[in-house]
Amino acid sequence: MNTAPPPPGHPRIKDVVVEVLSDNWYVLRKATFSFRHRDGSWSRQSREAYDRGNGAAILLQDPDAGTVLLTRQFRYPAYANGHPDGMLIEAPAGLLDDQDPEDAIRREAQEETGVRVGGLRHLFDAYMSPGSVTERVHFYAATYRREDRAAGGGIAEEGEDIEVLELPLAEALAMVADGRIADGKTIMLLQWAAAAARDAGGTAAGPR
C-alpha cells in the first residue's frame, strides 16, 4: 500500500491510502481516506475505483443526407447484464491510449467506420460512471460524406467485428426512444444533435 496525497486544495479529504487490488487488463484500486462531512465531522471511508484510462467518442453526420454513422458490436458486459444479444449500437469511440483526444478519436473513427475525419467540434467532457470508474470521455462531432467512407469494421487482430450503420438522425432518435439504442455516450451525442438541429433549423454537425 502507499499513501497518496489528496487533490491540491481539497479541504475535505486527508490521509488517503491506496491499495492495488488488480492490475490485469486495467487497474482496480481501493482507496481508504478520511472525509469531512458538511457538519464538520470526519469519517473513515473506503472506495474502489477501476482505472481504464480516458476515452473519446464522436458523432459523425452527413449534413446533406441528414444521416449519422454508428456501429454495432458485441459487448459482453451488456450481455451479462440482461441485454438480449449484447449487440450494442454505438457512436465510434475508444480509449486514448496516451494520445491526444483529437488524435485518438480520429484513429477510432477511421478504424471503426473507415471515415478519415477532418475538422472536429469539441462538445463536452463527461465522467460516465463516477461512482466506480475513473474514465473521463471527450465528446466530439464532425461531418462526413458518403464518398469519404472506406473499409472500417475495426481491427480483426484485436478481435473486433464491427458493423457500420448509416441511419437518418430521426430514426436513430426513435431507436433511443424504443430501446434499440441503449449506449449512454451514444444517447448523449444523439440528444445533442437533436437539440442542435432544433436550434439551427436543420441538421447539426461539426466543422468540415
Please give a structural write-up.
The structure is a single chain. By secondary structure, the chain is of the alpha+beta class. The protein folds into two domains: 2-51, no CATH class; 55-200, Nucleoside Triphosphate Pyrophosphohydrolase. Helices cover 21% and strands 37% of the residues. It is built from four helices and eleven strands. Strands 5, 6, 7, 8, 9, 10 and 11 form a seven-stranded mixed β-sheet that branches. Strand 9 and strand 10 form a beta hairpin. Residues 203-208 have low confidence and may be disordered.
The count of β-strands is 11
The end-to-end distance, rounded to whole angstroms, is 49 Å
Shape: elongated
CATH 2nd-level architecture of the largest domain? Alpha-Beta Complex
Major sheet summary line:
7 strands, mixed
The parts where pLDDT drops under 50 for at least 5 residues are 203-208
Number of contiguous helices = 4
- CATH class type of the largest domain: Alpha Beta
The name CATH uses for the topology of the largest domain is Nucleoside Triphosphate Pyrophosphohydrolase
Number of domains: 2
Specify Rg, calculated over alpha carbons.
20 Å
Helix content: 10-25%
- What is the overall pLDDT average? 89
Q: Determine the strand fraction and express it as a percent band.
A: 35-45%
Helix/strand/pairing class, anyone?
Answer: alpha+beta
- Order of helical and strand elements: EEEEEEHEEHEEEHH
CATH superfamily of the largest domain: Nucleoside Triphosphate Pyrophosphohydrolase
